[in-house]
TrEMBL record:
<feature type="transmembrane region" description="Helical">
    <location>
        <begin position="571"/>
        <end position="592"/>
    </location>
</feature>
<feature type="transmembrane region" description="Helical">
    <location>
        <begin position="312"/>
        <end position="334"/>
    </location>
</feature>
<dbReference type="Pfam" id="PF00662">
    <property type="entry name" value="Proton_antipo_N"/>
</dbReference>
<dbReference type="InterPro" id="IPR018393">
    <property type="entry name" value="NADHpl_OxRdtase_5_subgr"/>
</dbReference>
<feature type="transmembrane region" description="Helical">
    <location>
        <begin position="6"/>
        <end position="23"/>
    </location>
</feature>
<feature type="transmembrane region" description="Helical">
    <location>
        <begin position="379"/>
        <end position="398"/>
    </location>
</feature>
<keyword id="KW-1133">Transmembrane helix</keyword>
<dbReference type="InterPro" id="IPR001516">
    <property type="entry name" value="Proton_antipo_N"/>
</dbReference>
<feature type="compositionally biased region" description="Basic and acidic residues">
    <location>
        <begin position="466"/>
        <end position="512"/>
    </location>
</feature>
<feature type="domain" description="NADH:quinone oxidoreductase/Mrp antiporter transmembrane">
    <location>
        <begin position="131"/>
        <end position="427"/>
    </location>
</feature>
<dbReference type="InterPro" id="IPR001750">
    <property type="entry name" value="ND/Mrp_TM"/>
</dbReference>
<feature type="transmembrane region" description="Helical">
    <location>
        <begin position="75"/>
        <end position="102"/>
    </location>
</feature>
<keyword id="KW-0472">Membrane</keyword>
<feature type="transmembrane region" description="Helical">
    <location>
        <begin position="516"/>
        <end position="536"/>
    </location>
</feature>
<feature type="transmembrane region" description="Helical">
    <location>
        <begin position="219"/>
        <end position="244"/>
    </location>
</feature>
<feature type="transmembrane region" description="Helical">
    <location>
        <begin position="177"/>
        <end position="199"/>
    </location>
</feature>
<keyword id="KW-0812">Transmembrane</keyword>
């Protein structure tokens, strides 16, 4: 059963990737989507079997991978509650994204390649979450990195897509370097990479020291910090977050699959899986808490002013991942995983809903060129409303149960950094509500800022709304048409200017609702966004959590945070709701009642506005500190080291001397017979002279 869950996506990827041209795009779509749907059904069955009455964790041996000295690595599946939760999340979202992509990518001529990449990514993610040891996890970890590179750069004729793919790949290498060092250190400390063996040995290492970089570190703290470095890269945490917004250059279904529900949550899963180690390293948990809190706040501030509909949701994802790490960092591991579970539904819904909007607007992504779409795409509007309510934590939606539990855990914790995390998450809840409703109002409400309305505004308020956050212009990292609007190509040829048609313009048409193949996944995800919290809250974080999780998560004997959550003061429990109401009121006031206010504020506070719009200038800072020096150093090695020294003293130097010698020898070849006769005569005279001298000397002797 578990073999089928993991390998069905791989089979689909191989069929579509190797035989896509032979069998055609439509068959490739059917094969890959069917494989995922079947894997999803099995995953849900496994979830209820393992977490139900009589269910138990098990280890499924696939094969022995390799053995080297004391290192023995098996290829095996670790099946427990945490694994089954991730199996359900990955296969469900991936199946719906496959189905959605059948409609969304209909015009693209390279659909077999796209669906092969999607299925390959899903296989790698399933390898990661079923891993029984750190090496197998690292295999899946790198596999999803490769697949994300291929998917982000799918439209490879679009320079910004290529740049975004490389940026994601390179930034993740930084985190993966720390992750690999952490794996090495864990093996040195425990003599194994298998989770069961590591967890059994970990209590003995609680006070062990390890000498590193001239200092004696607590061994488990150092190992956990290095492992968390990998999580920071993969889950786009503060300092290693810069790749995530640019990754929106890929097709929208990719954003829903990779950057909402699966790959970016790999870091959260890894920390949860290794919770027995982190539980013994309180300093590392404090770092996790602080980084999570900073990320939740920092990403929310940037989301306040973004104009690309996908980038707003991308920064929202970054912020929500910060919430998950806060839950993990304060020791409430179940709350972090529960938010991962609920977030997958409503964030995938928001991304796919944004894709439906982009589809309706003929690939327009700039919210300043939208407005009044509720009349034209009512179903998509309803789905986006549900996703927005779940994201902001409206009572009884999925996000309400999981996000509020994290905020309460942050308040009730006594770990260092918990006050910062609590304040950051509460303030981020206000900003989340504001930018979510800002997105909704700019897109679906107010006057239309597209078509004829974009060219002759009938009322001053419309003009103010058009320039709501400064003048319309390019959003960094996106492709644009000649009107300065962000464009997501419908197919590869749309990257190339098409003067014969109107591709990519999105101004002279009426928005239209998406086809059924795109709206069905939205409806399924909306159900999850509404009811996943109320259905599963008792199992994940309620009275039944001990039986549900078993030994999957390590809530140590001194860790009572999951019980303390229920003792949180009333004002703490009410604070997220107060924040979401304030955020809604402010957004309604600024974008419905007084649509000229954002433009006025942007002009009054230009420095703050540019600071947020330019993402706290992290890209510029990293470019100055890392990119340019590295590029200049490489240029120096190329020109001076390789060109002047190696080539100059090596191949080029030797060949140049040979040329010089031959050029001198060539001068002797004049073509005149008397010159050759003269040389021969000189040679004969020299030979005779030598013979006479040597002969005379021999005779005298």
């Amino acid at each position: 059963m578990y073999h089928a869950i993991v390998f069905l996506p791989l089979i689909g990827a191989l069929i579509a990737g190797l035989f896509g041209r032979l069998i055609g795009a439509r068959v490739s779509e059917y094969v890959t989507t069917s494989c995922l749907a079947f894997a999803c059904l099995i995953a849900w069955g496994a979830f209820f079997i393992v977490t139900g009455e009589g269910g138990h964790a098990e280890r499924v041996q696939v094969a022995q991978w390799f053995s080297a000295g004391d290192l023995n690595v098996d290829w095996a599946f670790k099946i427990d509650t945490l694994t089954c939760v991730m199996l359900v999340v990955v296969t469900t979202v991936s199946t719906l994204v496959h189905l959605y992509s059948v409609g969304y990518m209909e015009e693209d001529p390279h659909r077999p390649r796209f669906f092969a990449y999607l299925s390959l990514f899903t296989f790698a993610m399933l390898m990661l979450v079923t891993a029984d040891n750190l090496v197998q996890m690292f295999f899946g970890w790198e596999g999803v990195g490769l697949a994300s590179y291929l998917l982000i750069g799918f439209w490879y004729e679009k320079p910004s897509a290529n740049a975004a793919a490389m940026k994601a790949f390179i930034v993740n290498r930084v985190g993966d370097f720390g992750f690999s060092l952490g794996i090495f250190l864990v093996f040195v400390l425990t003599g194994s990479v298998s989770f069961d063996a590591i967890f059994a040995k970990a209590p003995e290492l609680k006070d062990a020291a390890f000498h590193f970089l001239g200092y004696d570190w607590n061994a488990l703290t150092l190992a956990c910090l290095l492992l968390f470095m990998g999580a920071m890269g993969k889950s786009a945490q503060f300092l290693l977050h810069t790749w995530l917004p640019d990754a929106m250059e890929g097709p929208t279904p990719v954003s829903a699959l990779i950057h909402a529900a699966t790959m970016v949550t790999a870091g959260v899963f890894m920390v949860a899986r290794l919770s027995p180690l982190f539980e013994l390293a309180p300093v590392a948990l404090s770092v996790v808490t602080i980084i999570g809190g900073i990320t939740a706040f920092f990403a929310a501030t940037i989301g306040l002013v973004q104009n690309d509909i996908k980038r707003v949701i991308a920064y929202s994802t970054c912020s929500q991942l910060g919430y998950m790490f806060v839950g993990l960092g304060v020791g409430a591991y179940a709350t972090g995983v529960f938010h991962l579970f609920t977030h997958a539904f409503f964030k995938a819904l928001l991304f796919l809903g944004a894709g439906s909007v982009i589809h309706a607007m003929h690939h327009e992504q700039d919210m300043r060129n939208m407005g009044n779409l509720r009349r034209y795409i009512p179903f998509t509007t309803a789905m986006m409303t549900i996703g927005t309510l779940a994201l902001i934590g409206f009572p009884y939606t999925a996000g309400y149960y999981s996000k509020d539990a994290i905020i309460e855990a942050a308040y009730m914790s006594d770990r260092p950094g918990h006050v910062l995390a609590f304040l950051a998450t509460v303030i981020a809840a206000f900003m989340t509500s504001f930018y979510s409703w800002r997105l909704f109002f700019l897109t679906f409400e107010g006057p239309a800022r597209w078509g004829a309305a974009a060219h002759h505004d009938a009322h001053p308020a419309v003009a103010h709304a058009t320039h709501a956050d400064g003048k319309p212009g390019h959003t960094e990292g996106a492709a644009h048409d000649e009107h300065g609007s962000n464009v997501e190509p419908a197919h590869k040829s749309d990257v190339v200017p098409d003067h014969a048609g109107d591709h990519g313009h999105g101004h002279d048409h009426t928005p239209h609702e998406s086809p059924l193949v795109m709206t069905i996944p939205l409806a399924v995800l909306a159900f999850g966004a509404l009811f996943a919290g109320v259905i599963f809250k008792d199992r994940f974080i309620g009275e039944g959590m001990d039986a549900f999780w078993g030994h999957s998560l390590a809530h140590g004997p001194d860790n009572h945070i999951m019980h303390q959550i229920h003792e949180a003061p009333g004002w703490v429990s009410a604070s997220p709701f107060i924040m979401l109401v304030l955020g809604f009121v402010l957004a309604f006031w600024m974008y419905i009642r007084r649509p000229e206010l954002p433009h006025i504020l942007a002009e009054q506070q230009p420095s703050l506005y540019r600071f947020l719009l330019n993402k706290w200038y992290f890209d510029e800072l990293y470019d100055r500190i890392f990119v340019r020096p590295a590029k200049n150093f490489g240029l120096f090695l190329w020109k001076e080291g390789d060109g002047r020294i190696i080539d100059g003293m090596g191949p080029d130097g030797i060949s140049a001397r040979v040329v010089d010698v031959t050029r001198g020898v060539v001068r002797l070849q004049t073509g005149y017979v008397y010159h050759y006769a003269f040389v021969m005569l000189v040679g004969v005279a020299g030979l005779i002279t030598w013979y006479m001298l040597t002969g005379a000397a021999g005779g005298m002797h």
